[in-house]
Design a protein that fits this description.
By secondary structure, the chain is an alpha+beta fold. It has 2 domains: 132 residues, Beta-Lactamase (2-Layer Sandwich), CATH 3.30.450; 159 residues, Reverse transcriptase/Diguanylate cyclase domain (Alpha-Beta Plaits, 2-Layer Sandwich), CATH 3.30.70. The chain is built from 9 helices and 12 strands. The strands form 3 sheets. It has a 6-stranded antiparallel beta sheet. 44% of the residues are buried.
């Protein structure tokens, strides 16, 4: 087994890592969204955001793996941070560097590994976004480019740790956090030629809830709605509270039926909660949708927001709004939803 070496700037690298104050912190949805997306897009059983400390690799986000950390001496990520290139091992059992590695000979039985270095704001390689499979596989140049796109998302989130990117009340991304993540996600959708949609939500009864129950009741309604959004979202969806009672959801790799299913599930989650809420108006919402097709040339988050926002206000005034795009048509309203292909 080959033990990974230390980069020449190890002292500075560790200082950059520790300055983030992220090691041994709880899991966060904004990082878990990225590893879920990687696991889904590459169809692997394990996806990790791994940070390489002095003597261990610690996982800020992990899908498909129970361990929170492993020793650096046996880590694949320790090798990956030694170079800028995506580090690929197609069959660890036949690679002299890893064939007798405990992570290969035993759980999690690594055969395939691909890790893209993650950088701090000053350029130090502090960890990786990595994929693991239990069977050998190849990894093409286009696969590496897509992994780099997702790694850019992880870097964006790591670099924003010192910024105010999370809404204190609901614990989901705020406007800044959502825009940082959404723009990168749109770029990934473009490279992978995936359709998607932006949904803009506005709570219908929020003023009445505040008037009858005070700001405490209003804050609780916002927390409940955010929690229902989290329960509703799929692996690749990006959520955010943008301000007041307005929320966004970016659905990547989604078509009209997926968008309809999302709003239906959200209404079901809210209906269950509303049954337990007494003395205050039920939580309800209006929604506007701006969709983009797999072949769309432009995916600008501000353009999508403007389109969806206008349709949300139309839905609020009419109760029903048709959303037309070059790829599909959806119809949504306050109480029903019915997709139809053009």
């Amino acid at each position: 087994m080959k033990i990974p070496g230390k980069p020449p700037n190890e002292t500075q690298r560790l200082r950059a890592l520790h300055s983030l104050r992220v090691l041994d912190t709880p899991a966060e949805e904004r990082f878990d969204q990225i590893t879920r997306m990687a696991k889904r897009l590459f169809d692997v059983p394990i996806a990790l955001i791994s940070l390489v400390d002095s003597d261990r690799q610690w996982f800020k986000s992990r899908q498909g793996l129970d361990a929170r950390e492993t020793p650096r001496d046996i880590s694949f990520c320790g090798h990956a941070i030694l170079d800028e290139a995506v580090f690929v091992v197609e069959n660890a059992a036949q690679d002299l560097r890893f064939s007798d590695n405990p992570l290969v000979c035993g759980a999690p039985d690594i055969r395939f590994y691909a890790g893209c270095p993650l950088h701090s704001a000053d350029g130090h390689r502090i960890g990786t976004l990595c994929l693991i499979d239990r069977v050998p596989r190849t990894f093409s140049a286009s696969d590496q480019a897509l992994l780099r796109d997702l790694a850019a998302l992880a870097e964006q989130q790591l670099r924003s740790l010192s910024l105010a990117t999370t809404d204190d009340l609901t614990r989901i991304p705020n406007r800044r956090g959502f825009h940082l993540l959404a723009q990168q996600m749109l770029a990934t959708c473009g490279r992978a030629r995936l359709s998607g949609a932006l949904l803009v939500f506005d709570l219908d009864n929020f003023k009445r809830i505040n008037d009858l129950g005070g700001h405490e009741a209003g804050d609780l309604a916002l927390q409940v709605f955010a929690r229902c959004l989290l329960l509703t979202c799929r692996e690749s969806d990006v959520l955010g509270r943008i301000g007041g009672d307005e929320f966004y959801a970016l659905l990547c790799d989604a078509h009209a039926p997926d968008t309809g299913a999302f709003t239906d599930r959200l209404r079901q989650e809210l209906a269950a909660v509303n049954e337990t809420r007494h003395g205050v108006p039920p939580i309800a919402f209006s929604v506007g949708v701006a969709a983009f097709g797999a072949g769309a040339e432009t995916r600008d988050i501000d353009t999508l927001v403007a389109e969806a926002d206008a349709r949300m206000f139309a839905a609020k005034s009419t109760g029903r709004i048709a959303v037309r795009t070059s790829s599909f048509t959806t119809v949504s309203g306050a109480s029903n939803y019915s997709p139809a292909m053009e």
